Amino acid sequence: MSEHHETRGVSGDAPNVTTRTPQKDIPQATVARLATYLRVLALLTDDGVAIVSSEELAVAAGVNSAKLRKDLSFLGPNGVRGVGYDVARLRARIEDVLGLSGGHRVVLVGAGNLGRALVGYRGFRRRGFSVVGIFDNDPEVIGLDVEGLRVRDAADLAGEIAVLRPTIAVIAVPDDSAQQVCDELVAAGMQSILSFALCQLTAPPGVELRRVDLAVEMQMLSFERVRNADPEEPTESSTTADVAETATGPANESGAAGVVSNSAVPAAHPLTGSGRIARRVPAHPTPGTAGLSHCAAQAAQTTSHTATEPTSKGSVVTP
Questions:
Q1: From start to end of the chain, where are the E strands?
Q2: 82 with 280: CB under 8 angstroms?
Q3: Which residue stretches of the chain have pLDDT < 70?
Q4: pTM above 0.90?
Q5: 83, 3 in Cβ contact below 8 A?
Q6: 280, 64 Cβ separation under 8 angstroms
Q7: DSSP letters of 232-271?
Q8: Are the CB atoms for 106 and 124 separated by under 8 Å?
Q9: In whole angstroms, how far apart are CA 145 and each of 56, 131, 274?
């Protein structure tokens, strides 16, 4: 499978007929990878890269090229066979499928350490998410300026949401207040909510509720570290014993003693480092990465598990 062929050139005008991909037909795992491709494409755009091959994009995203082409096939024709993908066009197509074309207005409840750090994160606006309001119920916090936004009173949450018209709400309050805040957001009409609370929140059907648990991300890293740890080197005596045991082992089905089938011997796969990508990226430079900038090449060394930097929660919010 190669890049989809189009009748126009890479830099030519878009076809008159635009094929929209029904979002419901795209698997959730593919959606997650599309977000990764979008991040890499943004880095390539910043570095002035106009065309990228499927192999280069796959390496930078940490997947194999066959999986990348299959993921992009859900978007319709995108690339030119033998040429590659137009970075700007593919980025715009993914943004359209992910619903990012028009951007999103975000409100955040909880102006504590975590909330303030999230508001100050520059990557949100870069990727189409603009924080338009931050709320808290602490009298000492209400009215303060956080990254150019005045902290609003959480008691006015419903009315303020009607004015701000956000599309996404973020909950950054302690666990004992999270469900109540979630209920208030739902009552105010919010249908997309991201929670940093450790507890599992509930929401009625039709409300998309996602939870971020930084501890889970670190547990995944711990698991990968243990799994990728180098095995202990076998001692000389144990190696000799293993060889002897193999040589004097029981006869196989054909009657030849000590003969071991190649299929019974697992192949060794030396690791090049820790993390998932290390098992996919060889120690020597991978063909197809020469055209990538240093910044985009670094993206290939990251995993899909990206932890948010802040670790503390905001103030308690009670009506």
A1: 51-52, 79-80, 84-86, 104-109, 129-136, 145-146, 149-153, 168-171, 192-195, 208-211
A2: no
A3: 1-24, 79-80, 230-319
A4: no
A5: yes
A6: yes
A7: PPPPHHHHHHHHHHHHTPPB-TTS-BT---GGGSPPP---
A8: yes
A9: 43, 13, 42
